[in-house]
């Protein structure tokens, strides 16, 4: 007998990522998401008699870029193989994939969890085709082949992960890197990233892995975390009471929050891999790979480093901003335009993220532009609008866009620093509040706050409080 | 007119250019010939008379307006395995009976671009699997020289129609001899270009690394004319050759002085019919008389060719034919779930020979057997390819029999597929090694059946091979003999 505490889980992930090519991997059909069923199809991606695949070179290029971004070794000679099994969503009843000579080998993903950096080693990345989609109706089923032939890369980890949280953090880090590399839209809602998760448990320190179960076709990271949490607990409990784990394919039910075994017969396949005779080997040169390597965009880790070192942002800000490439790009443009990175960071991490989260929107779908936000920041930094004013202007920009100064004026949020227009208010307050005046003169600094507040009230918030304070100090001779 | 169906392609080009006949005349004569002979030969599985006549009339009009494309208004037959938009393409299979092509094969599109008329579909062994054209769900095609004999296969319909003068010329496909062997059995010219010389796009796949589109014609010149149009790179076929297309008819007339013809005794296999070896040996003597030098070469791994072929071809076929599940097209049979639908469709739709090869191919690719069968076969294939490279270092072409025997009686090999497989010994090496191969008449058996000889050339050696074949043909008369179908009718 062994207690649950003495058992350790091991997780390996296979992540399928749709590449953002415009056309499919073997034909010229569009990869656009959401088209009416079976409209982006042709004899090639429908598996008609006599149709032949021709490799989309852009799919190879994007896979190599992904490999380089993840530190993989690029195979200069790779090939495609046929993987045979029958399923109606697969037009040829074999999938063209890469078996023993994938495009990319090795590599790693560095991620941080609880403030500690950790590393997942990658086994390989290979390039293959996506399948169609089955839909079940009341009395019939339909297959939509629009997705069939969308280029897909499969990123396979080593068994380096040991908790559901690690798996979740790895996936987030992977998504960050892939979106910075520009190889995929990484849109989970559109099924751009889907995972198979292999889970096993074994005594801590054991060099042998336990029997694994395979969780199929997970399309949210949260789902992976919840399902892995459940499955690890289930396996640990089973093993701790002397039970055994069956090697099976399991599915996750989001509503019951449980995993269940799929019929094992359904997945007892002999895939009969062999090289696809319709395709030539993929041959790359060192020069081609080097050119892609030197054109590689900045990766999230480098960007975080730069934000801290060059822009002087706190590490926390850098982490939050870089985690979303679109927000990070927006931030950079704003910071450059307004000349104050910390201010730009504050607006993005504060009002911007709050409103995006509240409305569940992405930064590219809102009306505010880096130009208008930069303008607002300049007004704020110059103290022409105060905190509250800036917040109100921001909300208008967020919804409608426009010119920050114009909106601030319309809302009456422009503060004045013109002593000539403030002095009458100061004089009036000194006359009306002799008590606090003498308190202040007697050394009570808090009384100044009260006096400034009175001027702000009289000016309806338009006086610059700094200037008001200075005027009181002058007049009251301290 | 009345006899235009007996002309060669080149002959008709001249007639049309000189205004001595019209396309409508040609199509009418070919249709009339079909009506007279095809009841007994059974070469055609589908004929589109109305479209052919309409296209012929349109071609005549275009010619009057100055159009002089190479094949304008000339009708051709097409093996039922190549896609012609709007036409059936059942590949001899019950499963594909309801299917209509939704696009043109590249080879078909190229012929159409030169003005050719796709007159009808020619019978074949199901998906190209067979050497007799008996493995067709449509009908059994007969040999025009003796309707009790097989026409060979799998392009038996194409060869029989050309031999019977019910087609001017026809497209075929050759995976292990499927053009050359029926040409030999029927006494016409069959040409299989090097692997990749003609695009495979639109050729329904049997074995992708062996399949090649080719022609069945009345003489070698017609083969050269068609190849000039068919050959070339294709952005829709990754395996198509990029090398430039040559002017194949321009070199036909060059004599054979200095040409070396290789003879490998390996091809004269045990059990070869005496009439066949005699006819081929006479062809050797004839080449000597034409000034060619005969050299001895050897293909040591030839004895493994049949085994190698049936491992590789069936392995590829087992996956190529997986797509016929009745889900998207074809004759779907009902079932409770998708897998049951596939099983029922395939059980009802495929014939015995196809099932046999799918099972064999599935077996050789299975986990645990791959290394022993498929991988080993690929290694033997490399050795065979090297044998030919060495042989072609000392000769320009090799001369061999096409098949060990002349055409045999219908039904005689159906119960013994292995015997049928062994008949492919001389033809499969060209597919395994990617060579070009020409089959042309070189004599007749005592029984009066045609006998063919095979010329093999290195990959890309089409021009030289066609010239060597043409020089023999023009100095002999075997290709001019016709079966007596119409007289005995």
Shape of chain A: elongated
Number of domains of chain A: 3
Radius of gyration of chain B: 21 Å
Instruction: Give the amount of beta strand of chain A, in percent.
Output: 15-25%
Series of H and E elements of chain B: HHEHEHEHEHEEHEHEHHHHEHHEEHH
What CATH architecture of the largest domain in chain B do you see?
Alpha-Beta Complex
Largest β sheet strand count, sense and barrel closure of chain A: 10 strands, mixed
Tell the overall outline of chain B: globular
The counted number of beta strands of chain A is 17
The structure class of chain A reads alpha+beta
User: Beta-strand level of the residues of chain B, as a percent range?
Assistant: 5-15%
For the report, how would you describe the main beta sheet of chain B?
11 strands, mixed
Number of discrete helical segments of chain B: 16
Q: Kindly, what is the distance between the CA atoms of the first and last residues of chain B, rounded to a whole number of angstroms?
A: 21 Å
First-last Cα distance of chain A: 80 Å
Q: Stretches of chain A where pLDDT falls below 50 for ≥5 residues? A: none
| Low confidence ranges of chain B | none
Helix content of chain A: 25-40%
CATH superfamily of the largest domain in chain B, please? Amidase signature (AS) domain
């Amino acid at each position: 007998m062994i207690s649950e505490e003495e058992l350790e889980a091991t997780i390996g992930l296979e992540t399928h990522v749709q590449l953002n090519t415009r056309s499919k991997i073997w034909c010229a059909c569009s990869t656009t998401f959401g088209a009416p069923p079976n409209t982006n199809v042709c004899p090639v991606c429908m598996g008609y008699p006599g149709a032949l695949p021709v490799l989309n070179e852009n799919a190879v290029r994007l896979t190599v870029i992904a490999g380089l971004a993840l530190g993989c070794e690029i195979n200069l000679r790779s090939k495609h193989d046929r993987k045979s099994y029958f399923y109606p969503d697969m037009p040829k009843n074999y999938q063209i994939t890469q078996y023993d000579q994938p495009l990319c080998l090795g590599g790693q993903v560095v991620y941080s969890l609880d403030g500690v950096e950790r590393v997942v080693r990658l086994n390989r990345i290979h390039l293959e085709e996506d399948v169609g989609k089955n839909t079940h109706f009341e009395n019939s089923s339909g297959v939509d082949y629009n997705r069939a032939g969308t280029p897909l890369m499969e990123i396979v980890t080593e068994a380096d992960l040991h908790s559901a949280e690690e798996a979740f953090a790895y996936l987030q880090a992977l998504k960050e890197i892939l979106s910075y590399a520009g190889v995929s839209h990484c849109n989970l809602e559109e099924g751009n990233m889907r995972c198979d998760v292999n889970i096993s448990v074994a005594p801590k320190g054991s060099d042998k892995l336990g029997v694994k179960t395979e969780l199929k076709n997970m399309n949210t990271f949260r789902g992976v975390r919840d399902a892995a949490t459940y499955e690890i607990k289930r396996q640990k409990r089973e093993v701790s009471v002397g039970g055994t784990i069956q090697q099976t394919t399991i599915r996750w039910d989001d509503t019951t929050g449980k995993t269940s075994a799929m019929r094992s017969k359904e997945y007892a396949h002999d895939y009969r891999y062999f090289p696809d005779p319709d395709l030539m080997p993929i041959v790359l040169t060192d020069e081609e790979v080097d050119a892609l390597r030197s054109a590689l965009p900045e990766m999230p880790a480098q960007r975080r480093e730069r934000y801290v070192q060059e822009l002087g942002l706190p590490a926390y800000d850098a982490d939050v901003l870089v985690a979303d490439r679109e927000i990070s790009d927006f931030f950079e443009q704003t910071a450059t335009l307004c000349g104050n990175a910390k201010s730009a960071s504050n607006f993005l991490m504060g009002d911007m993220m709050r409103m995006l989260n509240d409305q569940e929107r992405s930064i590219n779908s809102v009306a505010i532009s880096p130009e208008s936000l930069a303008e607002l920041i300049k007004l704020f930094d110059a103290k022409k609008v105060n905190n509250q004013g800036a917040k109100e202007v921001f909300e208008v920009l967020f919804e409608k866009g426009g010119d920050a100064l114009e909106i601030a004026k319309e809302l009456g949020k422009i503060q004045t620093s013109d002593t000539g227009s403030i002095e009458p208010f100061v004089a009036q307050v000194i006359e009306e509040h002799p008590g606090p005046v003498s308190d202040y003169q007697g050394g009570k600094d808090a009384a100044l706050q009260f006096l400034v507040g009175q001027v702000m009230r009289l000016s309806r918030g338009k006086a610059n409080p700094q200037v008001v304070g200075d005027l009181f100090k002058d007049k009251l001779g301290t | 007119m009345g006899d235009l169906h007996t002309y060669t392609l080149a002959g008709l080009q001249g007639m049309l250019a000189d205004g001595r006949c019209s396309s409508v005349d040609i199509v009418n004569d070919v249709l009339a010939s079909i009506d007279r002979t095809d009841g007994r030969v059974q070469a055609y599985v589908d004929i589109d008379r109305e479209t052919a006549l309409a296209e012929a009339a349109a071609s005549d009009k275009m010619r009057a307006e100055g159009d002089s494309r190479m094949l304008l208004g000339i009708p051709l037959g097409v093996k039922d395995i190549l896609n012609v938009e709007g036409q059936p393409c059942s590949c001899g299979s019950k499963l594909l009976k309801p299917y209509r092509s939704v696009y043109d094969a590249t080879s078909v599109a190229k012929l159409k671009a030169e003005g050719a008329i796709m007159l009808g579909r020619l019978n074949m062994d199901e998906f190209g699997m067979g050497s007799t054209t008996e493995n067709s769900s449509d009908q059994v095609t007969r040999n025009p020289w003796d309707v009790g004999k097989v026409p060979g296969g799998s392009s038996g319909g194409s060869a029989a129609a050309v031999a019977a003068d019910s087609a001017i010329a026809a497209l075929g496909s050759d995976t292990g001899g499927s053009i050359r062997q029926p040409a030999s059995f029927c006494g016409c010219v069959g040409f299989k270009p090097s692997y990749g010389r003609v695009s495979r796009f639109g050729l329904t796949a049997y074995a992708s690394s062996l399949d090649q589109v080719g022609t069945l014609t009345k003489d070698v010149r017609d083969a050269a004319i068609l190849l000039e149009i068919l050959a070339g790179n294709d952005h829709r076929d990754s395996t198509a050759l990029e090398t430039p297309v040559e002017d194949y008819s321009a070199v036909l007339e060059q004599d054979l002085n200095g040409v070396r013809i290789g003879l490998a005794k390996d091809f004269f296999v045990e059990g070869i019919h005496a009439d066949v070896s005699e006819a081929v040996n006479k062809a050797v003597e004839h080449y000597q008389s034409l000034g060619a030098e005969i050299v001895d070469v050897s293909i040591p791994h030839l004895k493994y060719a049949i085994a190698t072929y049936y491992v590789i071809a069936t392995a590829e076929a087992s996956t190529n034919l997986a797509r016929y599940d009745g889900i998207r097209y074809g004759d779907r049979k009902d079932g409770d779930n998708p897998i049951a639908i596939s099983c029922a469709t395939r059980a009802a739709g495929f014939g015995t020979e196809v099932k046999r090869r799918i099972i064999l191919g599935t077996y050789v690719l299975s986990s645990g057997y791959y290394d022993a069968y498929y991988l080993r076969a690929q290694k033997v294939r490399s050795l065979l390819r090297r044998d030919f490279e060495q042989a072609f270092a000392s000769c320009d072409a090799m001369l061999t029999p096409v098949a060990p025997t002349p055409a045999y009686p219908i039904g005689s090999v159906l119960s013994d597929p292995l015997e049928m497989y062994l008949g492919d010994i001389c033809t499969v090496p060209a597919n395994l090694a990617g060579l070009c191969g020409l089959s042309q008449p070189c004599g007749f058996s005592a029984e009066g059946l045609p006998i063919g000889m095979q010329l093999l050339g290195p990959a890309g050696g089409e021009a030289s091979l066609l010239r060597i074949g043409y020089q023999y043909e023009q100095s002999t008369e075997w290709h001019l003999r016709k079966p007596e179908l119409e007289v005995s009718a």
